[in-house]
Design brief:
Length: about 140
């Protein structure tokens, strides 16, 4: 049986929908039954990530952990989270839940280095929270 992707979404409902659309468009499937199995948990009530990073709002961590637990309970084999800013809590989620979790930060860095092996600097268009937390800086420094 094929692995099931769990999408932890709702943090930018359009980002969740777009991410799923990319999965569909990049799957080499001729008929419906050849597509990848996906479970989407979208909770738009997750507190604003940037506010929490700037210490101006509630932490979304409990909501993120709850979403991971729900996806695991529904049978997801691994989790992806289309919201880049929410990756600020990636390691804290992993500390609370034993689950395979694909990091969009790490995957973005790997993709960039595959495309441009000599890459030394890259521009970034992102949320204030992503920039202030230096999420990509840490990923590129690995």
């Amino acid at each position: 049986m094929k692995k099931i992707i769990g999408i932890l979404g709702g943090m930018g409902p359009e980002a969740t929908a777009y991410f799923y659309e990319l999965i569909i468009k990049n799957t080499k499937a001729v008929k419906d039954q050849e597509h990848i199995r996906v479970i989407i948990y979208a909770n738009p009530e997750v507190p604003p990530r940037t506010d929490a990073i700037l210490e101006e709002g509630e932490s979304p961590l409990p909501y993120l952990v709850e979403g991971v637990r729900i996806l695991k309970g529904m049978g997801a084999d691994f989790i992806v989270m289309p919201c880049v800013t929410a990756h600020y809590w990636f390691h804290e989620i992993m500390a609370q839940e034993r689950v395979s979790f694909l990091s969009l930060l790490d995957e973005s860095v790997l993709y960039a280095h595959r495309k441009i092996p000599e890459l030394k600097k890259a521009g970034l268009v992102s949320s204030t929270g992503t920039i202030k937390s230096r999420l990509f800086h840490g990923a590129f420094e690995k």
